[in-house]
Amino acid sequence: MTVRVRYAPSPTGEPHVGNIRTALFNWLFARREGGRFIVRIEDTDQTRLVEGSVEKILDGLRWLGLDWDEGPEAGGEYGPYFQSERLPYYHQAVEDLLRSDDAYLCFCSPERLEQVRAEQAARKEPPRYDRHCRDLTDDERREREAQSLIPVVRFKTPLSGQTRFNDLIRGEIVFENAVLDDFVILKSDGFPVYHLASVVDDHVMEITHVMRADEWLPSTPRHVLLYAALDIEPPVFAHMPMIVGPDRAKLSKRHGAVSIGEYSRQGFLQEAMFNFLGLLGWSLDDHTEIISKQQFVENFSLERIGVTAAIFDMEKLTWMNGVYIRQLSAEDLTDRMLPFLDRDLPPSIDRPLDISYVMQITPLIQERLKRLDEAAELTDFFFAGDELPYDLSLLLGKRFAENSAGALAALHAAYVILAEASIWKSETLESFLRPLADKLELKTGDFFGLLRVAVTGRTAAPPLFQTMAALGRDRTLARLDIAAQRLDDSVAAPR
RNA sequence: GGCGCAUUCGUCUAGCGGCCCAGGACACCGCCCUCUCAAGGCGGAGAUCGCGGGUUCGAAUCCCGCAUGCGCUACCA
Fold it and tell me: Which fold has domain A329-383?
């Protein structure tokens, strides 16, 4: 029997990382086992639909490279893959359950249910449906139908006994039927509730393994009961640990970036995200951190999925992203960086950006870059005009704070020697400037630091000679000249 | 409240009875490299394995209880 697993999101917004991690594990399992990965959209709650979210969910999957064998866009023999288009299946199942007396019509109004719950709460009882309509006589039922009350259908949960199932990750789980209530399976709008729809679909679509988040564990006995009532074989269950926020609560918007799209916009590489997510709740061994997709596919196993909820550690993700960025070729990094530069560089800078120029800059920031959205602030001085907005005190630093004349002389000397340079290459520039530091009796750190501020407007920047080389002769000289002039002006100006 | 699941460095984790007075990674600290910042190398600090009982020659690993956390408890998924 070939493995068939599904990722079944509901289109209620952007998919969050926990959700996508579930998709990832399903995909990994399918690929490892040579099975099929199916995407099914669970859009049975018409009130919660959010326009455009299906596209966002699919984009998220595509971004991570999680291709699906069946589902929206891909099609497949088990379609349709939107539950809203599968109503006849559910209605048939409801009919069967009604006929076999495993379900019943319930005419209770939302108001009554609300009131029942309130009373139960007041008495400190567990809030559950009181089974008011479970044993309605035919007459009573007809009477309500005559009032044109629209019923829901509830499952007739056994009043006693136990429901047990084996979870691949957690072992045997047992529930007392007595603590389960008569849950709704078909809503008054004619749409099924998750429990019914997923059971029916998983069966019809021949899903072999239901791998979903931990939060579903408590409702699994309902599903097991439904399978039994429908007289069909349940799939294998595997409930995986959830991803939680720093406070260990279920991940939500208030924890900051949670949707997969946000990570992409923040400049995380899909490779890094894949690796990081794959390691949240699963491990290859006791020491491997950087794992390629292929390695994941080759080694993935359900046995190595952990049981405890994991906090999403942004710091580690960021580190890992840096590792992946450093592994990229200059061409590849440039391609990926370009959209970010385009988005983040000041509007005053002309577009389109010069790709060959960016290509020269890329290697200079590659090992300083942890997220693609940092590219602009790391490189803006390469694109800015030569009048850089730095403070004179920054230019002078500690070394020249009381010696602006010395700084001026050094700037001049550098200008003069560079102006004569016939070849404008990093090594050449260094071969001129390093001896010059000696001649000026300045420590290289002090001398180069001065030049760095003059050329980049900041104290922390890529290596000086490479920066000058990329910037080009004219702009480098212009910046040295401007720095010297500013110094000169400040000396001449009365305090 | 009821039910369920979980509990190893701050965080992600390794560990499935002796190899563990617990290993790796991120973060943190120090040193080295060095024109700054990074990257890299080396080293350090950091976990009485939630607590209490058992079982066993021997337990982080098995069993029981407790505590704590989280999840579920909808005509949401």
Answer: Helicase, Ruva Protein; domain 3 (1.10.8)
Phi-psi region of A181 (alpha: psi -120 to 50; beta: other; left: phi over 0): beta
> How does pLDDT run across A371-417, given as a tens digit for each residue?
999 999 999 999 999 999 999 899 988 888 888 889 999 999 999 99
Chain A 327-386 residues whose Cβ is under 7 Å from strand B: 367-368
pLDDT at A488: 83
In chain A, the N- to C-terminal Cα span, in Å, equals 87
Map out the domains of chain A as residue ranges: 4-83+243-311, 86-240, 329-383, 392-492
> Is the omega angle on the peptide bond into residue A352 within 30 degrees of 0, that is, cis?
yes
**Global pTM value:** 0.94
In degrees and rounded to multiples of 5, residue A264 shows phi and psi of: -65, -45
Q: Which of residues 382-421 of A touch strand B (CB under 7 A)?
A: none
List strand B contacts in A 50-109 (CB < 7 A): 108-109
* Catalytic sites of A, residue numbers: 253
Chain B bases near protein Cβ (<7 Å): 1-8, 10-16, 23-27, 35-40, 69-77
A4-83+243-311 CATH, one of 3.30.200.20, 3.40.50.970, 3.40.50.300, 3.40.50.620:
3.40.50.620
